[in-house]
Amino acid sequence: MTTAQTAPFTLEQVGTGTARFPSGVPIPTHTDQMVDPYFKTRMPKEHQIDSLLFWPQEKGIYPGVVLLHDWWGLTGQMKDLGARLACEGYVVIIPNLYGRVGGMVTANDDVAAALLERQNDVNVITDINSCCEYLNTRNFAKRNIHGVVGYGMGGSYALRFACHRRRLRAAVSYYGKMVQPRELMKDLFSPLLYHQAGKDIWATNEDLEQLCAAAAEYGKQAEIHTYPDASHAFCNEMKPAAYRADTTALAWERTATFLKTCFQGT
Fold first, then answer.
1. How far is CA 82 from the centre of its chain?
2. H/E element, 86
3. 251, 195 in Cβ contact below 8 A?
4. What predicted TM-score, i.e. pTM, was given to this entire model?
5. What is the pLDDT along the chain (266 residues), one digit of tens a residue?
6. Domain chopping of the chain, boundaries
7. Structurally, what CATH architecture does the domain formed by 11-263 represent?
């Protein structure tokens, strides 16, 4: 049984903001902008990542968490999750992973599936990596002390990104698909927490079996929890048919404990 924890900060103590920065290139600092008189008028060549920021307003330096949205886009529910993660003591950045295809948000599963089909995985991983580099320019975020948390589509990207960035400290995937090819798991260096919905028909039992087998084969640290009666998107209040409040609460407590353990001592 998981014991409920009290977050160190309340929602009233969390600051919010937006950020826009280039993908795949060095992030301009405040000093860079000050010495460049044409910064505001120059047309950038690189894709610009639009994102939301949440952070504890109490003065300090906090670990960073990149929060990755599901295939419905950057919804209000994801914003709520970002604020809740910040209450746990993290600087949270939520990139719009659909920025390259118009930045859409939808409640329609068919539209969401079509948006996912248009995604370029290499570009998305580059965008997520640039989020970490952006956090490195913030004076209230610890440098290179980062984790990633993702749901559904974002859970798939969280797992893939954890196999990409060696300096990552933690990865949490909610009902994400297994990386392909499975050999990518050789490059997983951070601890992984995976939440599986037992009745999921998108991230299937086969995905979980492959994940378990690869983690065992390559000696990776993977903590896996299965919720037998839960369906895909059991954390999404916008999907009443799938949403399970009790399961969501349990998974959240496990996530909060996992992140705290991974960032302990940093």
1. 9
2. helix 76-87
3. yes
4. 0.93
5. 344 568 899 999 999 999 999 999 988 776 666 556 655 655 568 899 999 999 999 999 999 999 999 999 999 999 999 999 999 999 999 999 999 999 999 999 999 999 999 999 999 999 999 999 999 999 999 999 999 999 999 999 999 999 999 999 999 999 999 999 999 999 999 999 999 999 999 999 999 999 999 999 999 999 999 999 999 999 999 999 999 999 999 999 999 999 999 999 77
6. 11-263
7. 3-Layer(aba) Sandwich (3.40)
